[in-house]
């Protein structure tokens, strides 16, 4: 019997083609419904490899169940959906998709910043709804981006790539990170500051940190109150880094000027969520890495990693 691979979302046939000759490949085909937990548990019970998404919880219970599992290839750079310790104990190799998504994610993060500051989405809605009756000097006037200060929280490769975009806009770049980044300091003129200083000085606070015990709930009422009233909050990292109630309050009370959000505590977010009722919020359905080229590269990388592990080779991008 061929070893089996279960993929938790429908991937294009061309992507899975290299697997078909040697493996029994099965995919969850329903595009609008995430794979139910009982199905995932059942499939994990017999699979040698899983290709998973962030919404699939790869926890201790599942790993306990997965007696022949050798590898989980997560279609994301993040892996906060996976219990790494349980995987290690079971000898399951975890792979992610770093690097291939860095530029694309940075592009969209900067786009979100621009959309929030220059009110691009609001203006699009305004014109399409037939509300453009006359021109006035301050019609949909937004905030400038060039020569302003960007504060990047989480200076990994995506953070650094956003900093490069910011440099092109003549921005002053501040960052806060677990460790100093000499390349960003020397190459881009980024300045390492404390979190307090970053919040106080930045016109754009941009979160690009992974979700960890240290970053969960990092942004509360106090952090928003410490920001400039004219500042924008951009999150392209993970929803749970932010207390959404505190963010909603800060936006409603004018404690900050606006937000651009690609991620939420609950995904998909309910369209009645208070954050989505605010005009000064630009919201996206977690699409920062979603260009055709990049998502294809991420899918191909997952397939290559699975094949490498099942052949006994070192995968290209293994999570340490
Ligand atoms: C995911 C992401 O690819 O890479 C990450 O960590 O958040 C996204 O790029 C997307 O959510 C699909 O899992």
Automatic annotation (TrEMBL):
Domain annotation D-isomer specific 2-hydroxyacid dehydrogenase catalytic: ranges: 5-319
Gene3D superfamilies hit by this protein: NAD(P)-binding Rossmann-like Domain (3.40.50.720)
Annotated EC: 1.1.1.-
Keywords: Oxidoreductase
Signal peptide: none
GO molecular function, one term: oxidoreductase activity
Residues of the D-isomer specific 2-hydroxyacid dehydrogenase NAD-binding domain: 110-288
Family per similarity comment: Belongs to the D-isomer specific 2-hydroxyacid dehydrogenase family.
Name assigned to this protein: 2-hydroxyacid dehydrogenase
């Amino acid at each position: 019997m061929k070893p089996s691979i279960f993929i938790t979302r429908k991937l294009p046939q061309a992507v899975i083609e290299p697997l078909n000759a040697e493996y029994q490949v099965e995919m969850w085909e329903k595009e609008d419904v995430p794979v139910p937990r009982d199905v995932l548990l059942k499939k994990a019970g017999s699979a040698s490899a899983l290709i998973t998404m962030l919404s699939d919880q790869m926890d201790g219970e599942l790993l306990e169940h997965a007696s022949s599992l050798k590898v989980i290839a997560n279609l994301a750079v993040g892996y906060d959906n996976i219990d790494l310790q349980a995987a290690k104990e079971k000898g399951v190799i975890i792979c992610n998709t770093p690097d291939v998504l860095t530029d694309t994610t940075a592009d969209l993060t900067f786009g979100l910043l621009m959309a929030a500051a220059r009110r691009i989405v609001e203006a699009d809605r305004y014109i399409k709804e037939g509300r453009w009756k006359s021109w006035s000097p301050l019609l949909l006037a937004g905030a400038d981006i060039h020569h302003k200060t960007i504060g990047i929280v989480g200076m990994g490769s995506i953070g650094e790539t956003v900093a490069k975009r910011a440099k092109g806009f003549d921005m002053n770049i501040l960052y806060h990170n677990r460790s100093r980044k000499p390349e960003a300091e020397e190459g881009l003129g980024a300045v390492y500051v404390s979190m307090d200083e970053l919040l106080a000085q930045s016109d754009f606070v941009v979160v690009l940190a992974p979700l960890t015990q240290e970053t969960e709930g990092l942004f509360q009422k106090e952090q928003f109150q410490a920001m400039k009233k004219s500042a924008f909050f951009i999150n392209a990292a993970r929803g749970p880094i932010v207390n959404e109630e505190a963010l909603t309050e800060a936006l409603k009370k004018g404690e900050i000027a606006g937000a651009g959000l690609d991620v939420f505590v609950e995904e998909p977010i309910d369209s009645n969520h208070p954050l989505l009722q605010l005009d000064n919020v630009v919201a996206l359905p977690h699409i920062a890495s979603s260009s055709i080229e990049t998502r294809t590269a991420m899918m191909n990388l997952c397939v290559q990693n699975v094949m490498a592990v099942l052949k006994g080779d070192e995968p290209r991008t293994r999570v340490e």
